[in-house]
Each structure stands twice: as structure tokens, then as C-alpha cells.
Design brief:
The chain is of the alpha+beta class. It has a domain at 31-76: Alpha-Beta Complex (Eukaryotic RPB6 RNA polymerase subunit). 22% of the residues lie in helices and 30% in strands. It contains 2 helices and 4 strands. The protein has helices at 19-29, 44-49, and strands spanning 13-16, 38-39, 56-63, 67-75. Strands 1-3-4-2 form a 4-stranded mixed β-sheet. It is globular. The chain starts with 12 loop residues before the first strand and ends with a strand. The model has no long low-confidence stretch (mean pLDDT 93).
Length: 76
């Protein structure tokens, strides 16, 4: 049986933000939604999360040098 893509040790943690979390993120950092980096709706992780166009995905990466870093992508 195949494992979920998110269980692979090289894939960072991906989370789908709720509408409230999205608004809070955009207002907290003064971001323009259209200027966020893009992630295709066809991306395997976007499909696994059930992301729709217009959603935001938070990616948490761990680095031995920088520690934990957060990245945000809008689904197109």
C-alpha cells in the first residue's frame, strides 16, 4: 500500500489555512493576496489537502541553520 505524500521525510509540513486565518495573515503582515507566491491546484500536496483556487497553504520547513521557517503559497 502506498503512503501519503505528506508522510515522506523530505516533504515539509503543509497546512491549508481557513478563511479567518487567511484574513488574519494578510492584515497582520500587510500582504496583498495577489503578490503571494503561487502553487498550482494540480500540485500533489495541494491535491492531498483538497485545496481550491484562492486558498493559502502554509509550509513549515525545518533547517539546522535557520530553525523553523514559514512560507505561504496561494493556490491558482
Amino acid at each position: 500500500m502506498l503512503k501519503s505524500l505528506s508522510e515522506h521525510h523530505l516533504v515539509p509540513k503543509h497546512e491549508l489555512l481557513s478563511a479567518d486565518e487567511t484574513q488574519k495573515l494578510l492584515s497582520q503582515f500587510g500582504l496583498d493576496f495577489d503578490k503571494l507566491p503561487q502553487m498550482s491546484q494540480e500540485d500533489p500536496m495541494a491535491q492531498e489537502l483538497g485545496a481550491k483556487v484562492g486558498n493559502i497553504i502554509r509550509i513549515t520547513r525545518n533547517s539546522p541553520v535557520a530553525g523553523e521557517t514559514l512560507y505561504y503559497r496561494r493556490v491558482v
